[in-house]
Amino acid sequence: MDIKLTNASDKPIYEQISEQIKKAIITGILKPGDPLPSIRSLAKELKISVMTTKRAYADLERDGFIVTFAGKGSFVAERNQEFLREELLRQTEEHLLKAVQTAKLAGIKGNELIDLLSMLVEEELE
Amino acid sequence: MTNAIEVTNLKKSFPQFQLKDVSFQLPAGTIMGFVGENGAGKTTTIKCLLNLLKKEHGEIKIFGLDHSEHETTIKEHIGVVFDELYIPDTLHATHINNILEKIFDRWDEAYYADLLKRFKIPFKKPIKQLSRGMRMKLSIAIALSHHPKLLILDEPTSGLDPIVRDEILDLFMEFMQDEDNSILFSTHITSDLEKIADYITFIHDGEIVFSKNKDELLYDYGIWKGTIEQSMELPEHAKIRMRKNAFGIEILVNRKEVNSAFTLDKPNIEDIMLFFVKGVHP
Description:
Chain A has 5 helices and 2 strands. Chain A is mainly alpha-helical. Chain A folds into 2 domains: 64 residues, Winged helix-like DNA-binding domain superfamily/Winged helix DNA-binding domain (Arc Repressor Mutant, subunit A, Orthogonal Bundle), CATH 1.10.10.10; 45 residues. Chain A has a two-stranded antiparallel ribbon. In chain A, strand 1 and strand 2 form a beta hairpin. The model of chain A has no long low-confidence stretch (mean pLDDT 88). Chain B folds into 2 domains: 211 residues, 3-Layer(aba) Sandwich (Rossmann fold); 62 residues. In chain B, 32% of the residues lie in helices and 29% in strands. Chain B contains 10 helices and 13 strands. At the A-B interface, helix 2 and helix 3 of A face helix 6 and helix 8 of B.
């Protein structure tokens, strides 16, 4: 699995790590039960702070993507497709909410926003 | 989590300079970057930790033990690196081994030889003939060869080229693979710190300005840029420090208190230091 960190991103390093691991799990690059590198060895390889990798793993654990056993390390959690879909749905909702809030700031009306969304759906999904 | 270092209300005065009520904690298993401009009190604090300077007031605990009462025990488990190698410069790396194996119970001759080979430091060449980078690497090899639990380094990477700095950071990360090990290092090269430090403690004019988790520091703050009139739109309580230039102002703000519609730049440690030292309260 590759992990690329960039300073150009607005996202904190720990979020960049947890998102890339999530993506690897969702796309099946990492399979349930696969071991993850230890917090300390990941920090060493990426030359970043141990607290940063610890936070990334804590977030992944909180979201149910990985499980950690004391003294053994962290592994990709066993679970079904439905759970993954649930997670992606939750993320989609979160992004849409942000879009609605931004639109509100700009004074964009509801139907304008819906039109915009249908246009994007047409372009990307169909 | 236990603390590797615990400093509480440390005071020390000189005719021209005082450490005023310095307090901070380094949790075991973490790396702390100790930053501040030259003369801010970094080296004085480190010398007090090591009992090379007598403190006037306050408490210093290392591994939970009083630093002066248990000095010998503590020093068996500390590795120290100063900005220069304070060893007679006619000695060879091999001589140093012969001396230090008699001083430290835990001196590991094989590991020392290993580090020298890895760093390509000649075994039989007087120290004075080594480059600054080589001397610094030798200094670090010496500090690590009795398997300390705590490394205290004063400006270990200053004056070194980026390649040597990278090798040294690698070695620090290797040391940190043992989760009881901790590092305190002072520096003014903040880019190194931004990579590996867990905590940043910033000292200015003998006083601790902040001692914080690095991620919180970098992601909780943002830099807003604009004109004075535009800055009125920012909530007052979000503003931390302000700097003016001929074309506008820059404000260090608390990201959480500012609407995401405002464009904020990501600060680095140097920016934050400058705001605290040169900036004014808005």
